[in-house]
Give the backbone structure.
Amino acid sequence: MTLRFRTALKRPAAALAALLCLAAPALAAEDFSPAERALFMSNQLTSLKPPATLNYAFSKSGSMEEAFDDKVSIRLKAKADGKCCAASADFLGGPRKLSLPEVEEAEGNPVVLYFLERDIREMSRLTKGKPNYFRKRIRMAIAETAQIKEVSLPYRGKNVAAREISVAPYLDDPLRTRFEKLANKQYVFTLSDAVPGGVYAVRTRIDGESPAAAPLLVEEMVLDGARPSARNP
């Protein structure tokens, strides 16, 4: 990780730009899309009392590659002023472990950025495409075409209000013929103010070549106490 990325992660608006390799414009919050503000500009950690750990289950399935189950942990500790939070991560384990910097002054939950960083690396590995290209497509989709839906989902024995933010960055990609099998990839970010850290789940899915075919790839990261999408009604 570069110094630029480590520094930018301290500020939610700049964190988005750093991850997606685009300069962060000096814009007011209202100049960003509702999806951008929800995902990258919300103070999701300020209500938490450190030390604390946010635990997520991570699963990969589908016909494209070998399936696995793993874990993600976001460790939160007090900043120098005693407030929340400085954040560090264990993102997957063993040979799959993603090396990530500590976020010294986190306000938004960095787990979404970490998930996207891994996803971009995986897209580059699978397609031989440039990481910056995928970063740009994701940024454009979140800014311009994201769909937001209000939902109610189970969390620790009760239903909580949540929002699903859905994007398909590669459907209208002018270069989609280079990786046609992966072009229908969908991202769903599920956020809820009622769960610790504000992030209920993040899911990606690449459908099979026909409606009857099994998905090529499904990856999902779900907060401890939440329910994976396959088990939701």
